Amino acid sequence: MQAHIWLARLAITLRQNSEAERSIAAAERSAALAGNHSHQTVLELLRAALNWNRGRVSAALEQAQAVLAAPDETSKSWKPYARVLLALGALRRADLDTAGAYVRQAAMDWALGNTYGPACAWMVVQTTEAEHGAEAAAPLVEQVISPGQDRERLLLADPAAAAWLTRFMVRRDGRSAEEIAVTARALATRTGNMPALEAAARHAEGLVRRSATDLLFAADHHPDPWAAASAREDLGVLLVAQGASQQAITVLEHAAAGYFTAQSPRDVARLERRLHRLGRTRDQADRPEEPGTGILGLTRTETAVAELVALGLSNAQAAQKLFISRHTVAHHLRSIFKKLRISSRVELARTWMESSR
User: Fold this and answer.
1) What gap in Å lies between CA 244 and CA 248, rounded to an integer?
2) pLDDT mean across residues, the chain
């Protein structure tokens, strides 16, 4: 069983989701045959990580929370990764207080040299930048990108880190940005150009080279929905800089939809602000004729549905949470769209976040 767990963890890291699924299933079968339940929490965390890779964020966070609450000692060394998932989920929801609480523990895990140290370090960097800005995060970024095994471990722990760190350093130190891209390329080459690592390398290279071709490749080939949306956002930003504003608007709208799929309303809201600055206008014919009545005009059930959908839940997930049918959720969504004078789930996420400020 241990071998299956190790293979599942490796496959999850490399975003080989089908292989991870097979390894987890094999580990579960081995545990059942042996009557061994001591690794159930570990298997639950692997399921959480796999769901995260596939963009099933709500399920992943529920599983990670269960792992964190588990009392067994077997999963103790795995719990730092559960905190990383929960912190990242909170960060994507713009819940910085919750993210910060998890990150404080992640910082301790990083300092103690935990197996998941690189992932913890990466979470600390992202949350610090979100809470306190680039200047506060800069010393931490310098630390995690220092040459050596730790940088490679970080880019392997989360391939999306390559582009984030490259983007951060492009504005501060072009040479360091190039070195990150070189490391990402070396990892991709050494692992046989696995899709996640190849997409990550092309994404980082696209930022350094200002290459629309590389960024488009990354957007189309990242197996991680959030990373794919990030690459598409970078492509849109590049198109704006090149003067192709109308083309950029289309690309950025697709990026916003990708972030919505990845259940990251914080990123959706940022892109909506960028699109507004670009002067995007919507065809009024697409809007309902009836005047909107705003968030306050929603019924209690509509408010509950709107909140869950704005957080990225599917109709089926919202139905399960509210103990109603998917058809009822769809009915409420039509009413919500009419009252808010919107026509998409992305607009709902933006409207909900604006009303919560």
Assistant:
1) 6
2) 85
Q: How far is CA 333 from CA 11, 46, 285, in A?
A: 38, 33, 19
Q: How far is CA 172 from CA 3, 57, 142, 241, 248, in A?
A: 43, 32, 11, 18, 25
* Encoded amino acid at 266, one letter: R
* Residue in this structure with the two tokens 């599917």, named with its chain if needed: 314
Contact 80, 109 (CB under 8 A): yes
pTM for this one? 0.74
What's the confidence (pLDDT) of residue 286?
36
Q: What is the distance between the alpha carbons of residues 146 and 126, in angstroms, rounded to a whole number? A: 17
User: Is residue 54 in some structural domain?
Assistant: no
Distance separating alpha carbons of residues 230 and 75, to the nearest angstrom:
32
- Do 196 and 226 lie in a common domain? yes
Is residue 282 domain-shared with residue 299, that is, in the same domain?
no
Using CB atoms within 10 A of its CB, is residue 92 exposed (0-12), middle (13-18) or buried (19+)?
buried
Last residue of one domain, picked from the residues 286, 308, 331: 286
Last residue of a domain, one of 268, 286, 304: 286
> pLDDT grade, residue 138 (50/70/90)?
very high
* Alpha-carbon dihedral angle through residues 249, 255, 256, 259, given to the nearest 10 degrees: -170
Domain that holds residue 173: 142-286
